[in-house]
């Protein structure tokens, strides 16, 4: 019963004729429900994407103003490269790649931290958050919010280069 009610609600949403037996009494209710639900999910994804795009544009200006003195900062060692995330769009990409909350929880708005992206052999591997108060690594996370097998090397490379971050703060002041 509840599946049919959900199905009818979706028909109404898409302005389908709810007096037409073709729609109201489908031969396979599960299939009809899944098909119209998939259409609704695509619609929601598009709306969500448009909202996120507006959010990105709005917050990019604030992020640029707060962190631009760190832009261009990068560290390299062997096959590891680490760079400052320079746009809100990059936060979204990091969150999607690693399936963690760096974008969702708006780390780009955190005033006292800096977020970097680590790649190994050109492949995104971890996202690193550094405290700008005490210059410590707050977290370094890869896929699924877990440390990658390169976590130690990434953290060591960041630690060796914390002085460069401090220098950027001193230059900005």
Describe this structure in words.
The protein is an alpha+beta fold. It has 6 helices and 5 strands; from the N terminus they run αααββαβββαα. It has a 5-stranded antiparallel β-sheet, sandwiched between helices. α1 crosses α3.
Mean pLDDT: 90
Instruction: Quote the beta fraction.
Output: 15-25%
* Helix content bin: 40-55%
Tell me how many strands there are.
5
From the spread of the alpha carbons, the general shape counts as elongated
Instruction: Report the radius of gyration as a whole number of Å.
Output: 23 Å
SS-derived structural category: alpha+beta
| Largest sheet data | 5 strands, antiparallel
The total of helices stands at 6
Please write the string of helix (H) and strand (E) elements.
HHHEEHEEEHH
Structure summary:
The protein has 173 residues and is an alpha+beta fold.
Give structural attributes.
single chain; elongated; alpha+beta; 173 residues
Strand and helix map with partners:
Layout: H1 2-13, H2 21-24, H3 29-67, E1 74-77, E2 80-84, H4 88-98, E3 113-120, E4 123-131, E5 137-141, H5 151-160, H6 162-172
